[in-house]
Queue: 4 jobs
Job 1
Amino acid sequence: MEALVHLAYLVAMLGFVLGLKFLSSPSRAKNGNLIAAGGMALAVIATLVGQFYGVEISILKISLIFGAIIAGYLVGKRMSDRVEMTEMPQLISFFNAMGGGCAMLLAVIESRIDATPPASSLSLLWAGLIIGAASFSGSIVAYRKLSGKQKDKKAAWIMWTSRLLLLVFIAAPILYINGILPQELELLTYALLVLGLVYGVIFVLPIGGADMPVVISLLNSLTGVATALAGILYKNNIMIAGGIFVGAAGVLLTLLMCQAMNRSLFAVIGGKFKASKGPVGEEEEIEIKTTSFGEVATKLAFAQKVAIIPGYGLAVAQAQHLCKQLQSLLENKDTVVHYIIHPVAGRMPGHMNVLLAEADVHYDILKEMDAVNDEMNSYDLAIIIGANDVVNPAAETDEHSPIYGMPIIRAYNCREVVVIKRGMAKGYAGVENKLFGYDNCQLLFADAKDALTGITNELKVL
Amino acid sequence: MIEFFTENEQMIYFLVLCTFLGVELIANVPAVLHTPLMSGANAISGIILVGAILIMLKIDENDYLSLALGTIAVFLGMLNIAGGFLVTGRMLQMFSGKKKSK
């Protein structure tokens, strides 16, 4: 029986490998997800069968386990069915918190069962505990931040506390093994659990909202590591493999995201955005020009080639369908319409593509920033909807700007630019957008939804 | 330390190779797929559920607190798995739904 279980684990691991491989290629991603899910199902079933076979297990335990599995499935299904695509990042963060919480609980139970583990197991146990706890509470804070329930908090004490906690985490096992700390394992485990939770919170608190995807990816990878640690503890290969894959892939994904935003991982973790760069260049008064629905519609009617640059504002207003309507209308008039997607548009890399795909926008007219940035002057009109920092020329011109060096879409090179936004509020980075002062730029103050409806209506009458 | 290494040599090899494999597997992912990939990877980390099931069976029948914690752990692990895969599927569905309408 045991051999069969191990064989099943091997197949499950192959499922994870192929799943991840396929998930990173656009045409096969869907299969990849199914394969990985199949591997997971196989691993779980094999574990259940292998453990229950020929062993007498109380009804209580069986019903608890199956009850929890069914409940977990139902809740998970309900949450994933109901979620709006705009809320995707929060949900991923929430699910990640669940995984971290699971790892954390495992370590707590383990310390209750076995009061005197060998030193190596103890280190694994505590490492898993702390990482799991930090991933749990950190993901919850990230979840709350993304849903707008929690503001950033920056303070010197946070930085010092987190450093102090890191020291404690390293020192505790060493002191314990050498007999300096009291030998009550369970008690110490609880103490470390609380500290781990605190660490997770203060780890994420100072990090700006714009950096949240990076943090989620990082926390995701942490959960993977916690899983792998638990796997080592149980000498269970599938847990090690699954955990490490996620851990390694998560780190790489985190770095890729940082790259897309031109931020170093350390700057993100330090919550450094404005603070690190010293005084922001003098705040100049920017003279802005506003425009109206009708005017924009006229501009659109005369344009040959239009670029739509969507940002999170579009998603929040749920205006992607209206955007598609406008696009169809323009295409009927033989106008070329392209969507230009900044790598970090939306809340996560690729998030905007998902949102536009939801509205049935064709893949071919979604242009990646790098593909079109050098020929932006070929567009007659750029309409920027709910995006801000990603089109701010200050990133290229103003060395003092906190976003200096971030790759941007060179919308200012288009013949004309219309920015649709709700008010003069600043973008995520909290900096003035120099684009608004450009001669070819006009602003349309309206909610993305109202603006698109208005423009579409005007355009229909023209 | 060295004792630990010799005892678990195979496992450590396995660990190191898996790390590289994990990085290599997704090295060429286009930005479009970052979000689904993150979500899918997140679901895979739900394999911790296996650990939760294993520990449930080790718990003493009369240790109610541990039983309760174990049950919650199984629940959380399953929630992570089910939600993770389903939501990834939903996201990817949108990409493929569009292909059909071509």
Job 2
Amino acid sequence: MIPIEYFLALSAILFAIGAYGALTRRNTIVVLMSIEIMLNAANINFVAFSSFFNDASGQVFALFSIAVAAAEVAVGLAILLNLLKTSDTIDLEEVNTLRW
Amino acid sequence: MQPIELAWLIPVFPLLAALILGILGRKMKEGGGYIAIVAAAASLVLSILVVVQVLDGSFDGADGVINGVYEQSGTWISLSPTYKFEIGVYVDQLTALMLMVVSIVSTLVIIYSISYMGEEGGRKRRYYTEISLFVGVMFGLVLANNYLEMFIFWELVGLCSYLLIGFWYHKPSAASAAKKAFIVTRVGDIMFMIGIIILFTTFKTLNFRDLFSMEVSGSDLGLLTLGTFFIFGGAIGKSAQFPLHDWLPDAMEGPTTVSALIHAATMVKAGVYLVARSFPLFVQTPETLIVVAIIGGVTAFMAATMALNSPNIKRVLAYSTISQLGLMMLALGAGGYLFYNSMGSEGYTASMFHLMNHAFFKALLFLCAGSVIHAVGTEDIRLMGGLGKTMKVTSFAMLIGALSISGIPPFSGFWSKDEVLATVWSAGSLSWVFVLLYVLGIATAFMTAFYMFRLWFLTFKGEPGESSKHSHESPKSMTLPLVILSAFAAVSFLVLFIGSGFGGTVYFEEHGSLSIEGVLSGIFSDPLTYVSIIVAACGVGLAYLVYYKKRISSDVFVSSNVTRAVYSLLQKRYGFTAGYDAFAEKIVYGFSRVVDWFDLKIIDGIVNGISFTLTRTGDYIRRMQTGRAQSYATVIIAGISVILVLLYLLGGLR
């Protein structure tokens, strides 16, 4: 039996990697992918605690979260396509019209 | 229905007349003067009915009479069941006296005005409107049953005074005199208002009946002293007492009828009336009473000195009014002090008696002066002289007025002035201050006799002056009021001997009821009476020698350096006029400039500073809104991290 701490550590590392990517990358697609990594870090937590507490609801939530993430990616990519169409770029540094 | 239940109608007639004249007067004959007369006469009739009922005591059975006071009132403003302001009428002997004085004098003055103001053309409507308004609000002031109502009418008579002093507003001197009267009395009005506020916050009521029946003790007594002091401040302004006396001589810029009615017989009495009305409060505060007496005595003396060498017939009378009002105040102060020491309340009666007599003889003197001015077209007595031959009625009426005010028996002024001085003398046994004030009073009596006869001799006797060549007696409608008023001035002392006497009708707490013999022997067995008679006779005699026989040249008053300095000091009114101006210019204007600077630099500075700082900071802070989604996300994550760390450190996660 692998102790729960290992899962949590993996999850934390994955989340940190995802957060770093989401904050630093200028390419919107890479940012979207980083967000997926963060979501999966959360899913690992769900599954780990589910098995730790012997409770199935964590796994249900993980499945649910995966489904939502899929929908989110669809929406995100749609926005990305529109962004490309209107401003001819997918560089996040260029998309700053809501500034002072 | 008893007449007294209609007392509230007394002010309504003149007020209605003012309304009608104000709207329709232009089309009426004489500017609607006859309507003003009818309204004043209606008030006079109703006043007489009410006064008779009050004085013969038959109103005791009427509704609303408690302890000899008729009161009819309703709630005006109700803040809570205990906090409320009333509006109503309050009739006792003092009110009756004032009703009598105001109604008689105002009716006669308005009748007189028909001729006196006959040449004013289109301005007559304004004159009669304003004077009717004045008569109405003066009745209201007299009838008020609480201080707030009284204060409202107090301000309204001040307004009428302002309007009528400035009647000839195209003359700059009249316009500025009106403003001066308004502003100087306003100083007193503010003090009156402070007094009212003190009374209301201390006793939670302003009704005369509640205030006068109140037992005051402890710390409330200190507040009451403060309250009566400030109420007396109001009286100082309205009754032109030192140091706010300087507006009254200037108020002579108005028509003479206005001077007679407002600035001699009625409105300036309002201050004395206020003190007399508040007498139940004043007698509990001896400190205020001494102030009242001192102010009264000093005013009486100072004003009499200023009357000595004034060349203007109306100003002499104005100073004389101030001086006599001072005597009334002096009597109230001394009488109240005596009452406080349980030594009777004759001072109150004496003061009110003098008030009544003064209203008649001073109105008479002013109307005589008006008649003279009407005839010669000037107010300078140096240009008059010898008018006695052409104006027999006027000169005779004025002689009666002068004898009366000088205190020559048996004219009315003698009786009341003697009682005033006797009160002050008997208060002298309590404090040396009153002995001093008695001396001032006697000196005033001497000067009064002197300046009145100086005025009379210079006007009516001697060689005709340059203005008196084409003089003629005034028309009947002017001489008739003179005759009636001179009858009043000569015989109003008779009330001493009717029924239980004046002291038996107008009194405070103690019912003075002496028989005729008692009154007479009381007066004539007192050596002080002879002192005042002799002093008055000396004054008349000196005036006779100087201004009629010319045995003593009047140059004697300006011959040496000292007397010349005094002479010019008196002509400059002790520098009060210049003093007021200097005060306004240096102190008030200087203070205003300091306030202006404070407003511009400090108040505006703070406001502008705050807005400047905020816009500047905003300019910098808005640069944080970069529009980059990632930098916002960074801030969010950093913030959450900080919160998590803090929660962990503080133990919130365990």
Job 3
Amino acid sequence: MKSATTCLSAWLALAAAALPQTVLIRGATVHTVSGPDIASGSVLIRDGKIAEVGVVVKAPKQARVLEAKGLHLYPGMIDSATDLGLAEITSVRETVDIREIGDFKPQLRTIIAVNSASEHIPVTRANGITSAVVLPEGGIISGQAAVIHLDGWTWEEMAARPSVAMVLQFPVIQQTPAERTGPSERRIPYAEAKKRYEARLRELDDWFERARRYQRARQAPASGLRPDLQLEAMLPVLERKLPVVIHAVREKAIREALAFAERQKIRIILAGARDADKLAAELKAKDVPVILPRVLELPLNEDDPYDRPFTLPAALHKAGVRFAFATYSSSFSRNLPYQAATAVAFGLPYQEALRGLTLYPAEIWGLNELGSVEPGKLANLILADGDLLEVRTQIKHVFVRGKEVDLNNKHTTLYEKYRNRP
Amino acid sequence: MRRVFQIAAAVCSALAAEPPLVIQNAQVLTVTKGSFRGSVVIRNGKIAEAGEKTLVPLGAHVIDAGGQYLMPGIVDCHSHIAADSINEGSVSVSSMVSIEDVLDPEDIAIYRALAGGVTTANILHGSANAIGGQCVVIKLRWGKDARGLLFAGAKPGLKLALGENPKRQGYAPAQGRSPRYPATRMGVEDVIRQAFAEAKAYRQAWREYQDKVARGENAIPPRRDLRLEPLVEVLEGKRLVHAHCYRADEILMLLRLAEEIGFRVKTLQHVLEGYKVAKEIAAHGAGASTFSDWWAYKVEAYDAIPYNAALMLRKGVLVSLNSDSAELMRRLNTEAAKTLKYGGLTEEEALSLITINPARQLEIDDRVGSIEPGKDADLVLFDKHPLSSYAKVQKVFIDGELYFDRDRDLSARPEREQRRKALVEREREAEKKQPSRTRDRDTERPQ
């Protein structure tokens, strides 16, 4: 009986800890990101938000005080492109929900396919990633991306933005299929690939034209229009309420994507743009932000400088292009900060790297409540025992929407279990 | 311009061949003998001396490291770069084929790995078959021919593979192919046991023949079997077994099977569930060459944990970290740093995972893997501590020769870019004269 009560009280304590609390983090080096660092600062968390930031902040009654001397406080990191919740074991088709069949599927929503029980989520947040953009990948218009917080019992609770952008895979001349369906998949001749690509470009323009006609028909009084869910999903894009993430890797595709955006008068965000350095001036002039391709990647072309992927963020920064870091993965999402570290080693100023993990993605995705340590923002905060970008640094505490989350995960559980094997 | 380069190259090679080289004022991380601020003296491609105070030999070429970090060249125990093909996937026992026959010295991955500080790599056959092909150890001597890459004196290897990959052809054959035995982990064990039983009978036939010859009797030699010969070499300890594996059950199976047959598994490769059977691995005496934190890309990698290397090491296993990827190969130093974070290894232990430990696993630790007098002068100069996320490789030496120099790489870029542009222009002109010339060729290229 006694152990049952102990159990119960332990559970109650845990349950209480799981509720948004009033917490005063005291004596940490506060990296506000938006402003200067505070050498020994305090941050008060109340009702899930940052209530106060300063050198001296008084602890309200009943507030939990977390002594953080020697620790570094940062805003939680945002991974700007992931499969989190959509892919559990990449080689097992049954556990992967990234690509739907069909070329034009704007009505698809990634948010409802996010498996909140995925083992990847606690593994990722244990390294300080508190929010992530989840992108679909199939066809030409793949569906709608979502922003999730890496905590919640259901996808609904995790959602920060159920629909943050439309995702478009810009057509390219492709001699090998994007997704291999079998090992004997044949390479198609160049002429045929080019024809296919031209047809897809036409289809894409036609699709937008259809959507515009639908929009006009819908506005006409008593037209007897039957609703079309696919075209209906395009309306926020046409109204410029929803940006379009255009996945375009090489120079030609990026150039064409920029022209397409101009023609269609849509707001765009580029993703995967490995040749963005070649078009940096244009991207700056048009104020098109870039979700960086993986920094830790092989160069695109055989004759590229060996460090071209490492120097891309610095090149974009120098040209004044807005950017954010991303992993395009679920199992590697936890390594997000090291993409930024390599960018620093190859020329990106440190503060810019930090912003590319926090404030810049918040701005690019329109998440005004995130990205810095400032009063009024959501309390997505992390406490580390050193520089966030150093591999050896340990993450000690993670708060998501003001709630301290459990850092245990599948990996720590297996570690403890087998470490203690006799 | 070209003449100047030729003269410069001639002068450089003359200097490299003759006078000693001294790398001064470096933070030297020997890996096996501690760390110090001092110098390393290189003579005839070997480390002659390493210490806080060394004399500069007369006429020596001196490099001032300016306090930067000098460590032994990184050894990657699992790579597939510099190979024209890696899987002879048509049969379950393909021990007759060898990576040595298909080495490609022009693979750009060699240069890129060099620029990440790797100087030695174990180039393995793929994992499509229970018994794969022969493996070879190379040094990343970019610019040399295929023969020039070989690590002379390193023992050759043989690839074995367990689990999902070797059974895939059994349950999900490629289009147009019939299923190939095995289709289960049971079958994988059987294929290996059968092959080694054949190899033993083959060895016996040769022994009987040699005995007869020794006795002066008339004897007909057995027919040579190139498939079984490498297995006999394994039985005789002349060839090292590198076994691709993931799950604890299959790891244990192989250890017991090897003990039954009578050989030692030299390295378990990937070995992502090695932490579950660490004491059995240690008792067998197998090395473990694993990833730092790859997981969830297949079912057998779902229980992979980033603590694997540290856990196995703490339980007495000889552990290394490998890349198995041309990309990861560029940053094995920060992969090693992950073991500081996951499992709390010391800096020296972390560095040993990519230097002396893989060298021991490949039985080349008398030559490479640490900074000690007598060893090959395979050295990497980093601008910061190699376990820092910000560390960049500045210079890489193999056998005392400079194979990568970041400054040289940077200053050569404008000229290289010009040459590239000229080539593209020439192709464009040719295309105009003879349309679709390049494209036809492109489509004809085999996959």
Job 4
Amino acid sequence: MRDAPSPGYRETSALSLTPASKRELRGWSGLAVAALALAGVLALLLALSRTPKIQDFLPWPVQEFFYRALVTHVVFSFVVWFLGVLGALMVLTTARLAMGQTRARRLGTVGLGAGALGCLILLAPALLNWGEPSLNNYVPVVIHPVFYAGLVLLALGVGMVAVRLILNLPGREVGPVDWGIAAAAAAYLVALVCFGLALIAIPSGTGEALFNERLFWGGGHVLQFVNTALMLVGWSVLAEITLGEMPLGPWLSAAVAGSLVLFVLPAPVFYALFDVLSREHRDAFTQMLWYGLAPQPVVMMAGLARLLYQRRTALPWRDPAFVGLVLSVGLFAVGGLFGFFLGVADTRTPSHYHAVIGGVNLAAMALYFALLLPLLGRSSRRAGPIRWQFHLYGFGQLLFSVGMFLAGEAGVPRKTAGAEQGLDTIGKVVSMAMTGTGGIIAVMGGVMFVWMALSRLMARR
Amino acid sequence: MASFLDRLAAVVFASAALALFAAMPIWHRVAESPEAESRQTISARDFSTLVEAMTKAHATGEAEGGVPIVHPPAGDVYVIARRFEFTPILQLDVGRTYRLHIASTDVVHGFNFPLGKAETLLVPGWATTVTVTPTHPGLYAMQCSEYCGLSHSRMKARVRVMP
């Protein structure tokens, strides 16, 4: 007689959720997808503000609005979306560990409130024409006290949930996925420390552009470890839901999660070792990313490859979560491969990070449908549209990245448009056309995700 | 058996990660690009005077995007980095050796110039010197590699190397 299969991660998570933790889970899940929806609206306004005739009807000065809206769009689609998903997964992990006995329970409510308030405040400068925009790396900003206040509130809000998770670890039974989320929480707190140290270390009188670049440089690099931890957790959970088994055993999963924290631990020390405005400081973080962020996805991909080979005769291709998993792994792998062939100033660099971030995005989107919405009692029986959404986003992003890579190989410089691109050969024109087509397809997939996720989240039960 | 293999894999992975981590100081040395350049202090005003003199003596009469093109002889050549341009644009000859002096006259810029194997920061008040001996004709990019403002990504120039 066979034993009944033991309950999986999603089932045990559902059992651990109290009404309070479910409210918090709904709050962070809502914040994450609302951030993407707002980013979409801002993208539309950006497009309208560049459209002749239509731009004349907009009720604000187009030129000033454009860059502020661009900054806000990037912050909502890149920073708030990932932090919202992180917030939701940290709430879930805390509930799983605590089983109703949560330590520092109030930190969760206060954190969610601070995060939501921070997001509202972040919108104000773009809508009210306040401050000068700065397109620095990782966290672009509008240089205005209100915008910085919004960022601080959001950062502290997520930080409180991270601290609560860490406080709930000792003496609790911690599973492999829980270790992954705890690693993301710890890395996030290291990123916050880096932002604080940068603020202290940057000399007064530093120009605004350099100030913002170096303020977010170190912590921004550490946040990529957080994103990677989220993606690896996503792959594990999706594999278990769709294939019945996690790609790695519990010990190896814990070692992979621990290594993500290990490599970011020296980050705060860099502020003591190198002048924050020096090239050495800049390069130390770049190298931390290059060397410290490669082993974990490679090991996880090897585990997934083993699992896929074992299940090769019965792969669930009609299950949207499985499609999301495979596309996420594929896109991330392509981006990782591109990373070995980067040029100096051509479009191969954005081809690499668009594919890698696309892989993280797909894992987060698939987790949203396969884990977060079902835990909130909002799962969908219609798999077709979700599967389509993953195909559109995944293949669109793949086309976009491959086009950019080929264009870079042919010599097209990055961050240029129009005549500056120097599209003087058929190869360059075709590869940039691939990029444009892929971008449009990926945007369609993104819009579908926001629409389906929001409508399910807000639907009356 | 599965549990044993899992533990073994965890030990191997953790050991490899720890070894990679312990080698961090080595990565830093290995990745550091050779410092081909040297630096001297100079005021923005003095440096601008040198650039103006070179431009006046060796301008070709052509310009690209409003920036004059100069064709100086082998030896010392001067370029200003400022938001958001490198000026003047250099036209160099294959086989000749140039000492390229470059300085920022406003804010901190990055200087990425693969032809001169240069990747450095340009801090106002300092001039950086790199030696360049072009071997093939063509257009060679130099660009700002440190965020310096909204049009940072447009801060680039193409050095012309003639046969």
